[in-house]
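BUG: 3D viewer hangs when loading the predicted structure for this chain

Environment: internal workstation, default settings.
Expected: structure renders.
Actual: progress bar stalls at 90%.

Input used:
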Amino acid sequence: MERRINYIIKLDHVEKLPEQEREELKKVSEKFPFRTNEYYLSLINWEDPEDPIRKISIPSKEELTVWGKLDASNEKKYTKARGFQHKYSDTAVILTTNVCAMYCRFCFRKRLFINKGEEVALDISKALDYVKKHPEINNVLLTGGDPLILNTSKLEKILEELSNISHVRIVRIGSKIPATNPFRIINDSSLLRIFEKFNSQKNKKLYLMTHFNHPKEITKEAKRAIRLVQKTGTITCNQTPILKGINDSAETLKALIEELSFTGITPYYFFQCRPVVGNRMFSTNIEDTIDIVESARSKVSGLAAKVRYVMSHETGKIEILGKTKEHIFFRYHRAANPEDAGKIMVYKRNPSACWFDEYTELVEEFKFNA
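Structure tokens produced before the viewer hung:
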């Protein structure tokens, strides 16, 4: 399984991309940086213009459609130090890097790749000091960018620092590496040792939050990487946005969450694609997507059907519960404002809506008292 993967940052080096198309897409890559690798490109069926791996990784002229914001969920509002966010009382987020193994064309944090160095701190000591002073924080999410792109020794230092904070019980690593370059895990036994070391400590648990967007990404190499991670005692969960033309069908989502559950990965979240600049081509209508999600969930076991359909909105993580002929139902799964916790909201339907803000006519809101 030993294999060295070369990264590609210029469209000219994507040999199977027609020359004319390369030239046309350079304007896109100048605005939204391009990065992929040999392994991920090998998953593309170049005879199929609708190939999902191609759409995830290769630029498209549609990305230049004027739409959305760079920070659609207003993460800046919850930033307490450079590269550090605290939105929900028990959870902190550390942006460890502004680099990934591959830049997904639908990335909701593409601002990190555009405005390099503006939001990510090389020194996370201020973030760690903040966590130490806030005992309500019991879990920390390492994200970016992709934490597994970091040098193993640097990641080890971060995990050691967090393990020394007694009230931090869980550390989550958000990573697409298992899908885009599983050899990063397969070839690095020291990475697996630091995972095992963290899990061996009393009252500590490591989670790997994978980003498999399509069943084609769950290759034998990806499964091998996941098994190695799971052997360290690390819990694996998956989250993916619903993406137009990539996974927005009940059959594809069924295959994805079923294969994830067979691999021992808990399907965690289906996200509504955020209204981020460049993402119009990937965005689906919420009310159509409800039907797709429910159809997929109805065809799988309870283990695979655990996945929740949510939006990461400025005000919180809003679960999309369902709809009737006239109304749509939302609930705050996580709320930035504690008073909104668990609140259920009923709106009149808007078939063209792609985001919560497009629902303006509130019919009712209520909470069940604990």
